[in-house]
Amino acid sequence: MTSPLPPQTWPLDVAGFAVELPIVPIKPDFAISLMMVIDLGVRFGEHVGAELAKKLAPLKPDIVVGAATLGIPIAIEVTRALGLDRYVILQKSPKIHLADARVQTITSITSKGEQRLLLDRAAEPLLTGKRVVVVDDVVASGSSLAGSLALVRASGAEVVGIGVVLTEANEWRDVLGADAALVHDLAHIPQFVPADGRWEPIASTL
């Protein structure tokens, strides 16, 4: 039986803010560097919100959309930094007021099985005919982000940009297709495989 590799972290500069992300095995031969934005403090949240807002402001968005759960603080901070007030959150857990919600099925690299994204139809007037930026913490497989884009567009909004704190590897590019060109990020993280008793980043093909 192969013994587990020793704990490792991945140092990262997120637009001038240094962090150390733990490398977390997903399978015995595959690992990711995990960013839990809610564990990195208020200053980090304010920083990434302000830096993403700088990239998204030229697109002149009317409103920000984020997906639960880790996209919520990103949506709030980007909205604040853009000088806006309202934002829309796409939920993942069913609630009594979401019985008639728009629904998209998604998958995530950090969650088991399929999940659902839910858009409260009461929030649709905030989106219809508006210029929208969709934000999240990390884009990895691209499934969650693609689901978010589908719900926003089904509400009659124009997606003018996508803001993520981190891009991970490159699978998301194929999943998003032409929408990949809308992505603005603050840093990039690789995925990892074991080599010589430690986790080593998988070389990028781009």
From TrEMBL:
Keywords: Glycosyltransferase, Transferase
CDD domains: PRTases_typeI (cd06223)
GO molecular function: adenine phosphoribosyltransferase activity
Keyword Transferase among record annotations: yes
Enzyme Commission code(s) on record: 2.4.2.7
Domain Phosphoribosyltransferase: 55-174
Name of protein: Adenine phosphoribosyltransferase
Protein origin, superkingdom: Bacteria
Database matches in InterPro entries: PRTase-like, PRTase_dom
Lineage: Bacteria, Pseudomonadati, Pseudomonadota, Alphaproteobacteria, Hyphomicrobiales
Pfam families reported for this sequence: Pribosyltran (PF00156)
Organism field: Kaistia dalseonensis
